What does this fold into?
Amino acid sequence: MGPAEARSRFRAGVRVPTAGWAPGYAQANMIVVPREYAYETLLFGQRNPKPCPIIDVTEPGSPYTALAEGADLRTDLPAYRVWRDGELVDEPDEITRYWSDDLVAFLIGCSFTFETPMLAAGIEVRHISRGSNVSMYRTNRQCRPAGRLSGPLVVSMRPIAADRVADAVRISGQFPSVHGAPVHIGDPEALGITDLSAPDFGDPVEIRDGEVPVFWACGVTPQAAIMTSRPPFAITHAPGYMFISDVPDHTYAV
It folds into this structure.
């Protein structure tokens, strides 16, 4: 299906991770903050472009984005998270009741965007083939702070056959606006990850003989910053439940 049909299904209440949905179109993470925090959020993205490549920012109070004509950021994602003082207080299907004229939405590139080219190259994407969410982990690497915002780098992990790792690096590296090439390959303990079977976000996936865990910077990093910095209010996508844009994924290839 196309992105508009996918968004209409989410608006109607379908709640599923979006990996593999509307192949060929870019997906995006989302963080929504009061205008008071908008500059610091923009600065956090500018200072940490690998996990937070900002691809659109809305006008204050507007739930609309140039990435998809007619889409509504309050209703067109399959699942959201609402935060107060750094604590998760709700995981609704839509956020109309939480919206106000003071809110600014940031859309951040998502690694789901380069999964279609990886699949086309014959590289298995395990969470798509098994119909689950991607595995995501907090790391021991700290992002560069921006005003009141700070927190650790979050990564997504995909098991890749050892003889295809170079191809995965090359393909994803062509998409710097959606996280680009991996930040780490191999030993998870070098990132402070002690148990791959217990991700901080998403679902665990099997790593088979002959496969290597490959880690990409992840757009859930702003949620880790919310938990660390504890702003009074924020809204995000639920990890793995992205905004699907009308922008073809090749638009972000370089």
